[in-house]
Amino acid sequence: xxxxxxxxxxxxxxxxxxxxxxxxxxxxxxxxxxxxxxxxxxxxxxxxxxxxxxxxxxxxxxxxxxxxxxxxxxxxxxxxxxxxxxxxxxxxxxxxxxxxxxxxxxxxxxxxxxxxxxxxxxxxxxxxxxxxxxxxxxxxxxxxxxxxxxxxxxxxxxxxxxxxxxxxxxxxxxxxxxxxxxxxxxxxxxxxxxxxxxxxxxxxxxxxxxxxxxxxxxxxxxxxxxxxxxxxxxxxxxxxxxxxxxxxxxxxxxxxxxxxxxxxxxxxxxxxxxxxxxxxxxxxxxxxxxxxxxxxxxxxxxxxxxxxxxxxxxxxxxxxxxxxxxxxxxxxxxxxxxxxxxxxxxxxxxxxxxxxxxxxxxxxxxxxxxxxxxxxxxxxxxxxxxxxx
Length: 389
What we know:
Elements: H1 3-17, H2 20-23, E1 26-32, H3 39-58, E2 67-73, H4 78-91, E3 96-98, H5 103-116, E4 120-122, E5 138-140, H6 145-159, E6 165-170, H7 173-188, E7 195-199, H8 207-215, E8 220-224, H9 228-241, E9 247-249, H10 256-261, E10 271-276, E11 280-281, H11 289-298, H12 311-331, H13 336-344, E12 349-350, E13 355-356, E14 371-375, E15 384-385
Helix pairs in contact: 3-12, 4-5, 6-7, 12-13
């Protein structure tokens, strides 16, 4: 056996003896509802996720390892989400799971990912999705639903001076939970809704619901649904009725898709939604620096003209992958226990969507001060003006 052959065999033996981390890519499982009635957020987030992976890989990866994105389209179906979550953690053996996008799906998947011991970046908003004891490796990047609802309630009650609230949610897990939370938070302010209902997100006409809300004396409509089709039909029903009651609610009421769904541009007036400070234009007409930097990098990829996505969804998707990068660097690898420790000790991590902090006790990384209220029909490059105070 020649020297070269012996050297080659020795090299093979060395590689075979190296730990899996030294040989592998960093696999990120991405549970995303890219189709279905709740897909608008996922499609935008996917733009940010894919761009961040490509950007990091072009720079050499993380600690010399390329990122490998393993995407599964759940279509907004919790049953599919469960099946794909099991596939990702047990068959694909991913190092991280991002998502699912929708809270109703995440309710079904987070226990599976937790049992597998895999770090899970939560981008659903309802409270039950994070728990330091039940799900020690699940950390939320998005704001909580409570933060959205509290901001919207405060605007409707304290700024608009409304107190006859109609709550309209949808029948998904997210819509049901959100309507319940909204009712509970209004009760703390001494307000009982004059009308409340849950609607199938595929229902084609909301005239009946809006007529009932008007008959009940509602002076503000507060919708809690991420289904842009449903929200577009709600706005159309209000406009067709000639009822100029304000709408204050979920960020999806100002999604770019709404502009294409409404019957007349003026129907979008008097509509407000909770949103992040990061995609709110300042008084000087500019976006915060980190947001603008990402807009400039992504604009060519998003068509080169005006950005036709809710940009905070894009920024959130981008940030989730950058968070993975930070945690792997901090942990020195992909060991789940070390990743958990990295999350628990991360403070003031600056992203495009928010500045994140987690602790051993608190899995919610998004600060209250990063939430505001926007005017829906001021959409420009996926961002908005602040609502008047």
